[in-house]
Write a structure and sequence with these properties.
The protein is of the alpha/beta class. Helix content is 32%, strand content 9%. It is built from 9 helices and 6 strands. A 6-stranded mixed sheet has the order 1-3-2-4-6-5, with helices on both faces. The longest helix has 18 residues. The structure holds iron/sulfur cluster.
């Protein structure tokens, strides 16, 4: 039997769960419990995901940015969301030399490695530039993506496209992919075993592209890569260091469709990304 918890703490947990549900998140990971501490209110661990940080530093490849791009003298020092606490999901994932997106796609094949394959129509691998400086990582395909085999092509995808264009880029300049490559039933959040099975391919995709910046769209992507249980609202908009990459977590476009005022927060985050990439706001056309 789990130990009882104070009513005030239970209330806080319930409020937090409601908040996550508002974000469309119904699945939660649990932090590795520090020695001598326990979390009686939470179920036993359903994931092996733990905090991870690597000092690995990789040289960044450069690609041509739009002509409007110009250096912006702004540097933000990265901060780390969660301290390393033991072996992680990605510990065994050293960078594969000479890996490439076609090779990773070929390795995935007609994947049946997790149960999500049962309901999919099309596997959604990813889309965009293989040499992108900027990679967006979402959660998983929805109905439109499942039908077309492309990421972010539904309503949320159209909003993401607008966001990318507002940054002075086009979709072909960036790379867009998801944590899981097959649509979870009823658009539920991917389960830990599905994330664990599929995310090594995401890792390979990121390493093959070797971007300057990764933007996690929503809590599932941020939690998967950063391996933290902290709510995204606590570290959204802050630079993180992840395996030698600069990473920014922000809200998922689907959340913005339900909560338009949050667009202002996301735009602030994307402006930081623009500064890091040396992008300037596109000039308005004079009338
Ligand atoms: S979600 Fe990933 S691991 Fe699962 S079947 Fe699809 S491609 Fe394979």
């Amino acid at each position: 039997m789990p130990a009882s918890i104070p009513e005030s703490l239970q209330q806080k947990i319930e409020e937090r769960l409601r908040y996550y549900e508002d974000l469309g998140i119904q699945l939660f990971y649990r932090d590795r419990v520090a020695a001598g501490h326990s979390s009686p209110a939470l179920p036993q661990s359903t994931s092996r995901i733990t905090a991870e940080e690597s000092s690995l530093s990789k040289p960044k490849s450069k690609i041509a940015l739009p002509a409007s791009a110009a250096p912006v003298p702004q540097q933000v020092e990265p901060v780390v969301v969660a301290p390393p606490s033991g072996p992680s999901l990605f510990d065994a994932m050293d960078k594969v030399i000479d890996d490439s997106l076609p090779k990773i796609r070929e390795d995935l094949g007609d994947c049946t490695r997790c149960k999500l394959h049962k309901g999919r129509h099309k596997l959604v691998f990813g889309d965009g530039s293989a040499t992108a400086q900027l990679v967006f990582v979402g959660e998983g395909p929805g109905a439109d993506e499942d039908a077309q085999g492309l990421p972010f092509v539904g309503r949320a995808g159209k909003l993401l496209t607008q966001m990318i264009e507002a940054m002075g880029l086009q979709r072909k300049d960036v790379y867009i992919c998801n944590v899981v490559k097959c649509r979870p039933p009823q658009n539920r959040a991917p389960e830990p075993d599905e994330v664990e099975t599929c995310s090594p391919y995401l890792l390979r995709q990121i390493d093959a592209i070797n971007p300057k910046v990764i933007v996690c769209l929503g809590a599932v992507a941020a939690k998967t890569l950063l391996q933290t249980t902290r709510g995204i609202s606590h570290f959204r908009g802050e630079w993180q260091q992840w395996r030698g990459y600069k990473l920014m977590a922000t809200y998922h476009p689907a959340y913005l469709l339900r909560n338009p005022p949050a667009k202002a927060d996301v735009w602030k985050d994307l402006q930081k990304v623009m500064a890091e990439l040396g992008l300037q706001l596109p000039k308005k056309k004079s009338s």
